[in-house]
Amino acid sequence: MSVEIHANNVVKKYGENVIIPNLNEHIKDGEFFTLLGPSGCGKTTFLRMIAGFNSIEAGSISFNNEVINDIPAHERNIGMVFQSYAIFPHMTVRENVEYGLKLRKIPKAEMKQRVDKILEVVQISQYQDRLPERLSGGQQQRVALARAIVIHPSVLLMDEPLSNLDAKLRVEMRSAIRQVQKHVGITTVYVTHDQEEALSISDRIAVMKEGQIQQTASPHTIYTRPYNVFVSTFIGHSNLFHATIRKHAEGTAVVFKDGFSLLMDNLNDEAADGMEVVVAIRPEEFALRSGTDGLHCKVSNKVFLGKYINYELQFEDSLILPNQPSLEFTQDSGHAEEILEVNQEIILQPRVSKINVFSADGSHSLMKGATRHEQ
Question: Do 114 and 167 share a domain, yes or no?
Fold first, then answer.
């Protein structure tokens, strides 16, 4: 039986060094919940606190309504899949999967039934008599997954489980993990720094930075309505522009530093006349325009990626926030009417319904309905 997980005002310290200052989160029963963020942001630390491998200095973590702070790791009924697989090299696939059941003294008939079923679910029945050295990386990861699930844990925890696989296997295995998780219906907490992996596999994603959750939402919301500039630039790519809110008879507009103006009907009540803001525009949210109405720039580089063509752009410095790694425009090569060339000067117009507007410090969104925590 899976559980809900509640983290209430959780604090993690190492001496005087605060790793997680005050974390609150609710993970739903049976959902695939991903902790996503850069290295050192606290995602693995939080996972290890759920597992019982790290102490909790303040606050509480609960499974359903039971606080687990003082429950030893081996009594929390958790399945764990590590980056390094951690399967026993001297045991066959079946023996590896049986291991946790033997520790729990499960009767032989029931053990055989449960192992047979999970080997079939993760599609490694045909390898059950092999030693791990005769398995591929993806097959070894399936063994680790089967061993974690076969004990019928309340929670499945996965720490960067695909990072040791090549690109093709990662795509294959993330699909397999998602299918297995939905098949068994177990509450799963998954740690990764890979944005594409998180977007493709999760029910909800919590984006972390410096021990704090910046936004929790569905993959679609995280990408289309990020709560702050950090989420906007960490998930995918966003081009960031200076702008000002102007209110007049026609409505509310964002006005870029070169005078180009966009009327917007989806800003919230905080958006006041004269307010300085940051406008985030993803590469696919631009459209080429003829004439003069739009953002003027020059193509500095282009990369053909088959289905897409990606252009690096050069804007006037006054238009953009400094220290951005790149400014980009993406064309769908199947629908592009004009292929651009390096050094070509172009005019781009953002798609108003798609762009995001943030406070001047980038701390929060000014879009209607944008929320830091989506249930």
Answer: yes
Burial class (CB in 10 A: 0-12, 13-18, 19+), 288: middle
Report how far residue 102's alpha carbon sits from residue 321's, in angstroms, rounded to the nearest whole number. 59
Tokens of 242: 């200076």
**What tens digit of pLDDT does each residue of 37-96 get?**
999 999 999 999 999 999 999 999 999 999 999 999 999 999 999 877 788 999 999 999
Report the first-to-last Cα separation within the chain, whole angstroms: 22
Residues 162 and 208 in one domain: yes
SS3 content of the chain, % helix, strand, coil (to 5): 25, 35, 40
| Tokens standing for residue 343 | 């050094």
Q: Are residues 328 and 347 in the same domain?
A: yes
Q: Is 329 in a helix, a strand, or coil?
A: strand
Relative to beta strand 155-159, strand 187-192 is parallel
The pLDDT value recorded for residue 289 is 85
Over residues 99-151, the pLDDT tens digits come to 999 989 999 999 999 999 999 988 899 999 999 999 988 899 899 999 999 99
- State the pairing for strand pair 308-314/295-304: antiparallel
Same domain, 105 and 212: yes
Counting every residue written for the chain, the total comes to 375
Claim to verify: residue 120 and residue 67 sit in the same structural domain: yes
211 shares its domain with 259: no
CATH number where 99 lies: 3.40.50.300
SS3 70: coil
Buried residues in 293-331 as b, exposed as e (16+ CB within 10 A): ebbebbbeebeeeeeebbbbbebeeebbbeeeeebbbbb
Tell me the backbone φ, ψ of residue 310, rounded to 5 degrees.
Answer: -110, 130
What single letter denotes the amino acid at residue 302?
A: K
If asked whether residues 93 and 169 sit together in one domain, one would say: yes
Site of tokens 């390096």: 342
Given a contact cutoff of 8 angstroms between Cβ atoms, the answer to whether 297 and 314 are in contact is: yes
Q: What is the β-pairing status of strands 204-209 and 187-192?
A: unpaired
> For residue 275, which of 250, 243, 249 has the smallest C-alpha distance?
243
| Domain contains 364 | no
- Exposure on the CB side of residue 236, measured as CA atoms within 13 A: 24
**Owning domain of residue 329:** 229-359
